Every structure is written in C-alpha cells, then in structure tokens.
Structure prediction request, 146 residues.
Amino acid sequence: MEEEVKFFDESFKSQHEKLTFRMICLEHLKKIGTIASKEYRGGYNQSKIHHIGNYAYKEDVYIPDTREEYSNAIDYLHDILYPHFDSEMNEADGKLNNELGEIKKDLDNYKDLKLEIKRKLFINLNSFLFRIKYLQGKVFEEEVGE
Prediction:
C-alpha cells in the first residue's frame, strides 16, 4: 500500500503553537520531494476481487498518474507563492506558461512534456525561494514583505 503524504504532520502541531506561511511552504516542499523520489507512471484502472463468505465481487480502483500528482503539487506551490514573485520569477513563469501552451498541441506526449516543464518550474520556484532566503529563521512574511 502506498504511503499517504500528509500536508500537516500531527506531531508537528504539538511542537509549535502557530502554523506560519513559511512552515506551509517547507512542508509542501517535503511533499514534493516524496513524490519526486518515486518512479513516475501513468494512471490506470486496477481490478480487485473481494470475497465475502461465498460471494465475490469485483471493484475497479483507479491508480493515480504520479506525473500528474507531481505537476499538481508544483502548481500548488506556485499558486501560494505567486503573490510574492519578484520580476525574475514572473519572467520565468511567463516563459514556462508559453512552453506549456505549445505542448498542448502534442497530445501523444503531453503528460511527459508537461512533467519536464513542471520540473523547470520547480527549479525556478526553488531559485526564487533561495533569493528571498526562505531557509533563514525569519518568518516568511517578514522576509518578503519588507
């Protein structure tokens, strides 16, 4: 069974009184790291047979596309950081959105090409976080807002 990655670790809540924007970003980076550390696969339906007494029934279960999980996780990070983008990140974002628009024409390889673009976006998002020094001990809003 695949381990579910939680957005917020319950043990973390007991250690800290309030959840900051910076902590949300770091937790999500951790989640992206977990998704990115696995082999990517396309989504598919899997049939499972369940037995109850003398009866058996078939259940179809969709196994998610891990390429889409990765892309969606990066989109979420993009969306929460978007209001804080600097000019360099805005420029990179525009270029990658144009690339994404171009590859939609190639439906046969769309998900694989999209995955490559999302990796570029993730690299740019991490570069942005480095520029604003998100790993320093300050609260995220103070780092960006001033």
Observations:
- The chain is about 55% helix and 10% strand.
- Strands lie at 44-52, 55-63.
- The longest strand covers residues 44-52.
